[in-house]
Each structure stands twice: as C-alpha cells, then as structure tokens.
Amino acid sequence: MRNFAEIAFDLVYLIGVISVGFLMIKNNRAAQYKLFGIMAVILGAGDAFHLIPRAYALATTGLASFTGLLGTGKLITSITMTVFYVLLYYVWRSRYHIAGRDLLTIAVWCLAGLRIVLCLFPQNEWLSAVPPLSWGIYRNIPFALLGLLIIVLFYTSAKEHTDTAFRWMWLTITLSFACYIPVVLWAQTLPAVGMLMIPKTCAYVWTVLIGYRSMKNQDKDEFISENSLPSGL
C-alpha cells in the first residue's frame, strides 16, 4: 500500500508539473512566464528519469534490482535541477526588469557549472548501491550556494517592489533545500529521512504554481515583461 501511494504521488506530480509547464509555454507571450514554463517542463522531465524507474521498481522486484538505472536517473535529475535554478534566476531578471549585474550572472553560471562538473566525476559512483557521502556533499556545496543566492534575490526584490504574487517564492526554495540537505547527509544511515523528499517535491510544486497563478492573474500583475527571452541561455 505504501508503494502504491508513492507511485501515485510521483505520477500525479510528474503529469501535473509538466502539463502546467506546457500551458505556460503555449499560452503566454511574457518572457518570464515562458521561462517559467520551460523551467517546469525541465523540472518534471528531469525528475522523470529517476521517478519513473523508481515507480517501476516499486511495482515489480524492488529498488535493489534497478540500482544502475536509478543512479543514472539521479545524475540526470541533479543536472536538470541545476538548470532549473539558472532559469529561475532569469525569471527574476525578467520579472523585475534587471539590467546589467554581470558579476551576479557570472556567479550564477559559475556555481551551476561547478555543480554539473562535480556531478560528472566518476568518484560520485552513481551506479553504486552505496555511493560515497563525501562526493554527495562536494557536489551539493555549489548547488546550495546557488539556491541561497536565488533565495536572497527573490526575497529582497519581492519585498522592495511589494510583489504580492511572488512574495513566497523565497520560502518555497528555502523549504526545498531544508528538506533536501538532510536527505543528502543522512538518508543512507537513516532511510526514514528519505521521506523528506515528499515535502521537497511539494515545495517545487508550490514554486511552479506561484508562476502559474501569476500568469492567470497577469492583468493585475505589475511585473509583466513583454521582452523576448534573455540572451545567454
């Protein structure tokens, strides 16, 4: 019964977030919402590489029989999640009409690039049933710093502009990392900690829904940009 509940949750999440993403891409001209839609599709598609094999494993012979496939899925998800935050940075730039700030953009790309490079090192042992904790920490240091940077940017900008539609964006990202970091550190020794991935996923759904609701109420939204997609993507 527990396996069935997890499978159902994962499928609803994947179908929901990808569907919302396609709706945002198709039905809007504003750059920030197209970016949000692309971001949502990448989030769902990337997670699918891990969650669909996991669902199949839970429905058949168990996780131990699919170690390599699940590890590959985790690698792909790690990379697509990094891209997710880079796109979220450009949503911030588009929404608040940010120009310049070249050093900030360089910092975002450097942190994202470092994270992806660290994910590709063979020392991560993605295909192992018990990958080394040390490399789990190494690759997530730049990721956490990238997340912290995005949190600060959305918090300060939403507060400065009294942006009620995006006032909780910083909190959704904070909650996702608050649930993710304990999993990285302790899931191997305390498997129950892995349950934190459920509220982490819900935090990402909240992030996507903030963008979707803002798009639906865009006639009342003062932060819409009709510019084309930012260069450099």
Detailed description of the structure:
The protein has helices spanning 2-26, 31-59, 67-95, 102-120, 133-161, 169-186, 197-216. The longest helix is centred in the N-terminal third of the chain and has 29 residues, at 31-59. It is mostly helical. Helix 1 (2-26) runs antiparallel to helix 2 (31-59) and helix 2 (31-59) packs antiparallel against helix 3. The protein is globular. The N and C termini lie far apart (43 Å).
Q: Tell me the radius of gyration.
A: 18 Å
User: What share of residues is helical?
Assistant: over 70%
Helix/strand class? mainly alpha
* Low-pLDDT regions: 226-232
Q: What portion of the residues fall into strands of 2 or more residues? A: under 5%
Multimeric state of these chains? single chain
Major sheet summary line:
none
Strand tally is 0
DSSP helix count?
Answer: 7
Q: Could you tell me how far the N terminus lies from the C terminus, measured between alpha carbons in angstroms?
A: 43 Å
Order of helices and strands: HHHHHHH
Tell the overall outline: globular
Mean pLDDT over all positions = 91
Can you lay out the helices and strands and say which pair or pack?
Blueprint: H1 2-26, H2 31-59, H3 67-95, H4 102-120, H5 133-161, H6 169-186, H7 197-216
Helix pairs in contact: 1-2, 1-7, 2-3, 2-7, 3-4, 3-5, 4-5, 5-6, 6-7
